[in-house]
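Exam revision sheet. Question 4 asks you to relate a sequence to its structure. Input first:
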Amino acid sequence: MTRVAIITDSSTCLPPGVASGRTVSIVPVVIHLPSGEVRGDRPDAAALVYEAMGRDEPVKSSAPTPLEYLEAIDAAAGRGADEVVVITPAAELTVMHRNACVAVELASCPARVVDSRTAAAAQGLVALEAASAADAGNTAEEVRMTAVAASRRAHLVAALDRVDFVRRSGRVPSVALGFAEHLGIKPVFQLRDGEVERLGVPRSERTALRRIVQEAWARGSRSAGRSAVFHAACPERAERLRLMLGGTDLVTEFSPSMGIHTGPGVVGVAWLSGA
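Answer key, structure tokens:
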């Protein structure tokens, strides 16, 4: 039987232990702090990132390089994998997909790349779906097709707690941000098929959570094959959302490598709609 390994990156929000004993390997995103570099999968990475951001210190991240993907593929082969499937965030959002494709061309072990068409916890769910197919003894092509099918069913809806951290992106005029901060707006957005779309601009945490639930239910989360609530340093808010949704498969921390762009307080839900 062909053994297929899954490789993805630490922006997927997969909590420690979820992939243990399975065929999933995580390539870390590196976060650059004034105090030094931190691997995105380090347990204290989120705390270090948000503390630095709270001090208004510059925080950046680096996507895994082709060499790092290549090393991960070689390591999987060294552990007995016959073939590898690499699952990346949407190509529109990061260079990870391109870097993984370069690595696959150089690898001695047969490998394939799947663009998850999403990111964060939704990408993690795609990776878990692929891992289940691999654990069931499917061929690499069957695992790849399972991941592709899951990417078409992947949804993510979330809310920002604050908009001031977005200022660093330079994509929103400062005047508009100042007005939004004054109103206390907590934008609700969805990530779907590689695109981020604003869904609403609630002005309180309560209405933001309600809007997330409304949008998720309207898009089929109640019949989801897999689901996850995620949060950036706000576990109590995540638990409230989980209860409002009627439960999810898991609650996990938002990747600090993505929290760099949003700040703490983000909460949302990701799911794979029914097949």
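Marking note for examiners. The radius of gyration is 18 Å.
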